[in-house]
Design goal:
This protein has 464 residues and is mostly helical. It is built from 22 helices and no strands. The longest helix has 21 residues. The protein is globular and about 75 Å long.
Length: 464
Amino acid sequence: MIAAAKLGNEQLKETLDKLQCHFTWKLGVDSFSLWHLLQKLDVEIKHTAHQNQVALLGLQAYLHQMNNQSDEALQSLKAAKEHNDKNYPPTSTAGSLIIYGNYAWIHYLQGSYQEAETCLRQLQQLCPSPWDVRLIPYIQALKGWSLLAIRARNGERARECFNTALMLEPDNSSFRTGLAVALYSSWNFSWQPDIEREARIQLERIVHTQPENYRAKIYLARLLKQVDREKSTSLVKECAERSSDPEVLKLSALFWMPQSTEQALQIIQRALQQDPGYHLLYQALANCYKQRWLKADHKDKDKIRCKAIRDLQQIVQEHPGLDLTLVKLQLAVFIGVKKPAQEEKIYEELHERIDTLSLRCRQALNLFWGDFFFYREKWMDRAKAKFMECYKIPVQTDQRRECGLRLLKMAETYQHNGDPDAASAIHHFLQDADKHLPREPAMLGLDDEDHPIPQRTGHDFSTG
């Protein structure tokens, strides 16, 4: 597989580029989303099945290295090796190729070229032939699980990985599970009916053969929500009662939120007891407070809003190391009902460190800030500037779409008020910005598709 002779640095890099590992799979990770991914991945590792632990720990090592945390990266690989040692060939051989490939890359990036070459020699001993066809399905599965852990938008690429694996080993139940999750993720991004049907069939099989796979059950519940409400609700109830996975509990709470914010709140609070460091739970909590407030009678609105402010402020103070940008944005909205200057101050503080925010959070900040100018301050020009700033970021998300809709509405207003040039300028801006969107879905930005950010409507904030 790899020549054992001493390599020059340029040749060493060329050899590393040919490896199968997290550093060569083009996972589409941007540097602004590392903390979000690491926090989310930590939950995944704690609650995942044994079948994908090596992939996830290898991915964790890759993300730590991208975040300039080499010691943590090596620790993750050590844990991956411990898990892999429990496997049998060819699963363990494929895992070792990924692990030592990651080791080689980390040593290379640290400037430890001799250690990198030592890892390459170990890889040569593991797989001396140019390519061992028996390892292909297992390597593809490891790649598929890694893609899924990054984002749902990788679902189609992961689906290709697991389909390849199943072509070579059609009876492998682990590959079948991966395909089911990949189909769900692909549907979660594309909402295509044919993918939905196939995902439902595959997840039904997984749930039947793996009755304690609560991630599969909550995914199936979402797919069944429109076609079999009774079964969907039954699955969600089971997940909420029996699962200890914070991600499953979060999705259960989001399922209940439109019907019962009280039940959703109880589930979120139980999930926080399981893992108080999972930042997406705090986003769900902020969303829950928002829904309670919007649905409350006029006499109860201010009481709910004040409690939400107290709780969210306490969360932000107690968890300075978590990515809570979206929680802060919702907190700003609550505060702004009575103190608009303080709302804008939060936006200004977030803007001061905008270079550290993920692309999605940058979009959300501009959306919330634009809404502040549009609905609260009635300042059209500043609102338009913020919506455009969001829309210019070439990542297709709900936040970008919302800003596009607001800009189109503004264009209609300009046209109606006799200013066709201003309306035309907005249309030209939108067309030009869309030209810069990447065509490859896997290269689009990170978001959490299961947890859309609730948007402000024009009448939401007229009262306390």
